[in-house]
Amino acid sequence: MSAVYVETREIPLGELAKYPGNAKRGDVGKIRESIKRNGQYRALVVRQVDDGLVILAGNHTYEALRQERSATARCEVITCDDQTALRINLVDNRTAELGGYDDDALVHLLSYLDEDYDGTGYTKDDVDRLLEPPEFDGEDEAGGDSPAGVGEPVVAYQIVFDDETQQARWYAFVRWLKREYGGAETLGERLVEFFDARVPGIGGADR
To answer: What pLDDT does 154 receive?
Structure first.
């Protein structure tokens, strides 16, 4: 039996019960930080049963709201059978773990916050780790002493960034180049291919 939507409304916390045996252990502290900064932006999913309302998804948001002394929580109320309720609880917890991140896109988004990461779940240390230079498979594409190839001349440049935003976007660009032009061995070759594809006439070594 699929779940049936009933309504969305504010419900006093005292009328809600956490899902019995919920196996997920969430970071209530981080959720509290988000609530303080952003408010409750996502409704709890609660099942309407004969003797009350049971939270199927959002048990840790409920706990964070309780610790923040909120009187109510915004809830989407549904009806379903016991098996569907169990499946909803399990899949809501599991799908949150199965996804991944495009680190370059993440860095790009975080760069707009001017180091004010309050309420995002990220800290400056997290962002610093994301900003670490990408690995270059043994070649020094950042401009070190490794040769571009046997017998080939090397011209090295040092890039100076004005801020972390510029640095983050450069590293994101370098990673993108590696994905798009993986057949090229060096950063220089990838840049040439990139410019050849977009601005014909300036990328080649003889131009």
So the answer is: 66
